[in-house]
Amino acid sequence: MNQEILNNIFATLKPKPRLTISQWADQNRYLARGTSPEPGRWRTARSPYTREIMDVFNTTANIVVVCASSQVGKTEIALNILGFYMHEDPSPTMYLMPTDGNAQDFSKTRVEPTIQASPALSNLFKYSKDSDNTIELKQFSGGYVAIYGASTPTKLASQAIKVLLADEIDRFPKVLKGEGDPLKLALQRTTNFFNRKVLFISTPTVKNDSRIEEWFEKSDKRFYHVPCPDCGHEFILSWDLVKWKLDDKKELIINSVHLQCPACFFNIKDKHKSELLANGKWIATAPNKTMPGFHISSLYSPWVKFYDLAKEYIEATNSGDPLKLREFMNLKLGLSFEDVLLELDPEILLRRREFYNCELPDKVLYITCGVDTQGDRLEYHIIGWGDGYEAWVLQYGVIFGDLTSEKPWKALDDVVTSKFTFKDGRQLIIATTFIDSGGNHTNEVYKYAMKRNHLGVYPVKGRAGNTNIIQSVSKNNVYKTTLIIVGVDSGKSRLFHSLAIEEFGAGYVHFPREDSANCDYHYFQMLTAEKKEIVLKNGSYSERWVSVYARNEALDTFVYALAALEMLNPNFEAQRKAIEELPLPEQTQIEFKPQERRILSRLNR
Ligand SMILES: [Zn+2]
To answer: Tens digit of pLDDT for each residue in 499-527?
Structure first.
């Protein structure tokens, strides 16, 4: 008789276990030292929302979906379920992780320590040979656990399994070469068992491209409702209810962070959390569906304070890096992130142009310039920057000419030395100009820039990948001149994030309606000439920029101008004071020289 038939008979004949999974865990599960903030005996009451998730798994449900953020005990839930089946209902079981590396790591650092720390489980291996208990495969009387990576199709196809625990499914490869979807392959292994048990558990990733979200949408969508300690109103903890205050230095005031009851506005603090959780209950929001699905975020975690989350959120938004914000949404809130940065509409940007009615808007504190070289021309972009990186496009321009001759470069001199005048007559000069040396005229760019470092002019080279906007500064080139490597992908992400902001203030980009600034429809087509595609590859995000319009000089030069600002390490507050202290031009003839030349000391070090 083959193993599969035996397994089936075994599964059918064995009497139903008497314990629920949470009861089993409370009695038998120990958290190994070093694997948990609270080692020792597992207590379901510590994170009461885990009880129903675990217990529902051992009811008639075949598939249970858990969409969870980090730090809510997601892995402990899976390990409790695993331990229960090993001990109470030994079955052919597969624990599936995104890659073989993930699987081996998980086996060594989580499964094995759990077995060792929990006598009920370690006893199962009392009579096992060493060869029965390997990293990949743990065999014991009546059952086994295979711990595999979803990237190896041969393993997925080889066994019939009754219990499938698929962890971090949003990071599973989408398709295996010639084999199709690994999750489908694994799921097919379970169809021989009428009483199969499948757990899909994951933090979500990109909206409309998230496996766990897709499964959750098909489920009865349970959310954990908690009663307000003050008015008793039952509600779901959500991020928009978290409130805080900042002090004069824009630092988070620790005691100000709280969660506000949506009914009575009572300030719920961390000290209320254990009471909240103990009195909470899961409510299905799509009760007509039969598949149980759970959503839980870090806001519920007994191990995470509201303050920590507020701090992380503020850091993520202040960084201006959309990836950090996405990580926060995914990992902390258990939400997929709709990437508003994917593609921008030139029409919409064109429509929001405004008349500056002056050469230099009052709030501008720094001016930088980005220059691109093409076969027959130079294109430049002059941007003014204010507090919080609010930007005012001042001018876009093209200088035609033979770049091996002097003429176009002389014209560029007029640009990089130009002065912009505030309404009151004070003037700002361009602090830094970054010129792309990556085109056809590398030598000309080096020669031009190296003689104008004193004017803040530097050659740059763009490099892809998500790194800092200023990747490096070196003199590693034939002219031994200062060359700056600019992380263009990060710069584009930052810029697109800014362009998506619709309210004046931090990060917003202003465009002038004045004809002299050259911000016409073609300009906006160039500015939005690329779009970002997000690809999940080998279980991790990767992004790439693809072209949607042939000309992208306005985009490239804006990114260089942004990098030029970053190179200055801008201190908006200090710069504002410096400008305010300037005497008005009619009172004195001294010309304003802002502190932009700090760049020189930075580069010469
Ligand atoms: Zn209330």
So the answer is: 888 888 888 999 999 999 999 999 999 99
Residues 6+ apart with CB under 8 A from 77: 50, 53, 54, 66, 201
Q: Which of 17-31, 61-75, 587-601 comes out lowest in average pLDDT?
A: 587-601
Half-sphere exposure of 193 (CA within 13 A, CB side): 30
Give the pLDDT mean for 228-254. Answer: 90
Ligand 1 centroid to residue 228 C-alpha, Å: 5
CA distance 432 to 8: 73
State both tokens at 141: 């009387």
- Copy the structure tokens of residue 492: 């584009």
Ligand 1 centroid to Cα of residue 272, in Å, is 12
Domains in the chain with CATH codes: 3-228+282-304 (3.40.50.300), 353-515+552-604 (3.30.420.40)
Q: Contact 599/567 with Cβ under 8 angstroms?
A: yes
- Smallest CA-to-CA distance from 304 within 326, 262, 281, 334 is with 334
Inter-residue contact 384 to 563 (CB < 8 Å): no
pLDDT tens string 80-95: 999 999 999 999 999 9
Q: State whether residue 138 is helix, strand or coil.
A: strand
Length of the chain: 605
Strands (E), 516-604: 530-537, 540-547
C-alpha of residue 235 to centroid of ligand 1, in Å: 9
The single-letter code of the amino acid at 296 is I
| Sheet (strand 457-463) strand order | 470-474, 483-487, 457-463, 432-436, 366-374, 377-385, 391-400, 509-510
C-beta of residue 398 within 8 angstroms of C-beta of residue 377: yes
Asked whether the whole model's pTM tops 0.85, one would answer no
Residues 6+ apart with CB under 8 A from 412: 371, 378, 380, 399, 448
Which residue carries 């217990």 as its tokens?
A: 55
Give the pLDDT confidence score for residue 540 in this predicted structure: 46
- Separation of 236 CA from ligand 1 center, angstroms? 12
Q: 243 C-alpha to center of ligand 1: Å?
A: 15
Going by their DSSP bridges, the two strands 457-463 and 432-436 should be labelled as: parallel
User: Residue 316: which pLDDT band, with cuts at 50, 70 and 90?
Assistant: confident
Structural contact between residues 369 and 416, judged by C-beta atoms closer than 8 angstroms:
yes
Q: What's the rounded Cα separation, in Å, for the pair 113 and 40?
A: 12
Q: What per-residue confidence (pLDDT) applies to 345?
A: 86
Lowest mean pLDDT across 64-68, 170-174, 584-588, 601-605:
601-605
End-to-end, the C-alpha distance of the chain in Å comes to 77
Grouping H, G, I as helix, E, B as strand and the rest as coil, residue 18 is coil
- Residues lying with their CB under 5 A of ligand 1, a single-atom ion: 228, 230-231, 233, 261, 263-264, 266
pLDDT single digits (tens) 4-23: 655 655 555 555 558 999 99
Q: How far apart are CA 398 and CA 108, in angstroms?
A: 61
* Gap from CA of 269 to ligand 1 centroid (Å): 12
| Residue 265 Cα to ligand 1 middle (Å) | 6
